[in-house]
Specification:
The chain has three domains: 246 residues, Glutamine Phosphoribosylpyrophosphate, subunit 1, domain 1; 171 residues, 3-Layer(aba) Sandwich (Rossmann fold), CATH 3.40.50.10490; 153 residues, Rossmann fold (3-Layer(aba) Sandwich). It is built from 20 helices and 25 strands. An eight-stranded antiparallel beta sheet has the order 3-2-4-1-10-9-11-15, with helices on one face. A seven-stranded antiparallel beta sheet has the order 5-6-7-8-12-13-14. A five-stranded parallel beta sheet has the order 17-16-18-19-20, with helices on both faces. Helix 14 runs antiparallel to helix 20 and helix 16 crosses helix 20. The longest helix has 25 residues. The structure holds fructose -6-phosphate.
């Protein structure tokens, strides 16, 4: 989950562009930074532990000479975050610099072999085998491009890499297997980066490198080859429609707050899905005996919520599955009659891709919901839908969750119509309310967008929170808890409220704050019972409930009032918004950076 940026320019210095590019990639990892540039026939390299701006300032990275160079922001997988483990890594002669995102599975064998051949290693990283392998291949008196190709053929695992070398003063070489890499072309030169927003200031013309491909970037353009046999690949340049403005903060102090406030807009976009894609996915879903919703993190929590919609509205047996557990849990039972719908904002989450690889091998129909056009998920799915929430730069997912649910609700609705197992009136009502969801979210933001800060201040010293909900609101509780945990590091528990008496109740003591999700609907009577149980044990109750819900209000110490008329099955979308705001403001109150929570990365492209 590191970030890669490289450019080969027709004129001007590469280093300031690399700096800007890495700033936009910092969400992918931010424990160390390094640059390599080429000028006057010499490879220059500097790196250290720290965040992008800090390391660039301290080491003067943006003054490094040369119109060609690469940079890396790291999220440690092998080797602690320290200077020797920062990228770029080089060969014994310091002539070949490599930056890498991914994990080389066979690096220990390769390292042993290279050490036996006399190579000296400095770091504990898997990456360092790559420059040494290239160096070894170059002893065969072949050009660097060919040597890189041969070295790549020996690697097992995931990688996006970029290589510069004093053996070729004109080119950057890159390759991809399972980790994302995009090439950008413009009249200024040629770029490569881990994702599109990093290069948006320079170009919107991009080419997505695919697994098993190798690319040569030159000032005037690029060439792509297959790693396996070196054969040439022709690929069309695509134009992305995201503007730079869309990818930047627009006056908000943090990306996360901007993205929370953007939700009415992103939800409207997610409502404008092309009908033929919804029809296609629905047709595949309808053929399934059972549906697995496979995802990680927040996307998985959206899947839990969506599983209630598919089961209730479409009467399809639906299992939400954590992608890293999917093979162990369901791997031997999925088959030709199952459907796997993988949900991933990035479309590159390693565990999710592994799960669907397995499902495909068992002839299971694999479908996808993602935010990233051209991502691996879009290529390996039988059919997919883009959730249309635009770039999300905050590491913690916010608009991703609500947009994914918007897409999944539309699919559940369409499938409900196709299968005809619930009444027409019920389905029509669901559709009418679904169209109102962006308005509900707008109202929530108007009412609580800033005022929720007083509630945050009131409970800011608490050392433990509980989040409880029933039915579909159990998923909202889990996502509210995840946001609080990720952003504020305050330990917190989330449970289906009915399950709370089978253990979690033991942590409740006088004053413990419990956030209850209480939309109107089928589960309301039971949630009132759960509130009373917790109140009897001295808990302080913060309820998220409908405006004017007097019963809940009377039982609560504080309430977060929600607009009238939100049906329970759609409640996770508006009801998560105050919890996103709560986590955001508490992080700010604690002096933490909500856009970059410690130890986390936006896109987990390693096992
Ligand atoms: C949480 C968060 C992560 C991601 C998870 C899956 O705020 O952002 O938990 O949801 O890494 O990522 P995608 O959706 O890209 O597969």
């Amino acid at each position: 989950m590191c970030g890669i940026f490289g450019c080969v320019l027709k004129e001007g210095e590469a280093a300031p562009l690399i700096h800007q590019g890495l700033r936009r990639l910092e969400y992918r990892g931010y424990d160390s930074v390094g640059f390599a540039t080429i000028s006057d026939g010499t490879l220059h390299m500097r790196k250290d532990q720290g965040r992008v701006d800090e390391v660039v300032g301290r080491l003067g990275l943006d003054k490094m000479p040369g119109s060609l160079g690469v940079g890396h922001t790291r999220w440690a997988t092998h080797g602690a975050p320290m200077m020797v483990n920062a990228h770029p890594h080089t060969d014994c002669e310091n002539q070949i610099a490599v930056i890498h995102n991914g994990v080389i599975d066979n690096f220990l064998e390769l390292k042993e072999e290279l050490i036996n051949r006399g190579h000296v290693f400095e770091s504990r990283t898997d990456t360092e085998v790559i420059p040494h392998l290239i160096e070894e291949e170059m002893k065969g008196d072949i050009n660097i491009g060919e040597a890189i190709l041969r070295a790549l053929r020996r690697l097992e695992g995931s990688y996006a890499i970029a290589v510069v070398s004093s053996a070729d003063l004109e080119r950057i070489y890159c390759a991809r297997n399972e980790s994302p890499l995009v090439i950008g072309v413009s009249d200024k030169g040629t770029f490569c980066a881990s994702d599109v927003p990093a290069m948006l200031p320079y170009t919107n013309k991009v080419v997505y490198l695919r697994n098993g491909e190798f690319a040569i970037l030159e000032r005037e353009g690029f060439k792509i080859k297959r790693i396996q046999d070196g054969s040439a690949v022709e690929r069309e340049v695509e134009e992305v429609t995201w503007t730079l403005e869309m990818a930047e903060k627009q006056g908000y102090p943090h990306f996360m707050l901007k993205e929370i406030f953007e939700q009415p807009k992103s939800l409207r976009n997610s409502l404008r899905l092309q009908q033929q894609y919804l029809d296609l996915l629905t047709a595949f879903l309808d053929r399934g005996r059972e549906l697995f919703l496979v995802a990680a993190g927040t996307s998985y929590l959206a899947c839990i919520a969506a599983s209630y919609m598919f089961s209730k509205l479409a009467r399809l047996t639906t299992y939400p599955a954590i992608s890293s557990e999917f093979i162990a849990q369901y791997g031997s039972s999925v088959g030709i009659d199952s459907v796997v719908l993988a949900v991933s904002q990035s479309g590159e989450t390693y565990d999710t891709l592994k799960a669907i690889d397995h499902a495909r091998m068992r002839a299971t129909t694999v479908l996808g919901v993602t935010n990233t056009v051209g991502s691996t998920l879009t290529r390996v799915s039988r059919a997919y839908i883009i959730q249309q929430s635009g770039p999300e730069m905050g590491v913690a997912a916010t608009k991703t969750f609500t947009s994914q649910l918007m897409v999944l609700s539309q699919l559940a609705l369409r499938l409900a119509r196709t299968r005809g197992k619930v009444s027409q009136d019920e389905v029509d009502d669901f559709e009418a309310r679904l169209l109102e969801v962006p308005v509900y979210v707008e109202k929530v933001l108007e009412k609580h967008g800033t005022s929720i800060r007083s509630l945050v201040e009131k409970y800011s010293g608490e050392r433990l929170f509980l989040f409880l909900g029933r039915g579909i609101s159990a998923a909202t509780a889990l996502e509210g808890r995840l946001k609080l945990l990720e952003l504020t590091y305050v330990p917190s528990l989330a449970y289906p409220a009915g399950e709370s008496k089978h253990g979690p109740i033991s942590v409740v003591e006088e004053g413990t704050p419990i956030i209850f999700l209480c939309p109107r609907g089928e589960t309301r009577r039971e949630i009132v019972g759960s509130i009373m149980e917790m109140k009897a044990r001295g808990a302080r109750i913060i309820s998220v409930c409908e405006e004017g819900d007097r019963d809940i209000k009377e039982l609560s110490d504080d309430v977060i009032e929600m607009p009238l008329g939100i049906p329970e099955l759609l409640s996770p979308i508006p009801y998560i918004v105050p919890l996103q705001l709560y986590a955001y403001y508490l992080a700010v109150e604690k002096g933490l950076d909500p856009d970059k929570p410690r130890n986390l990365a936006k896109s987990v492209t390693v096992p």
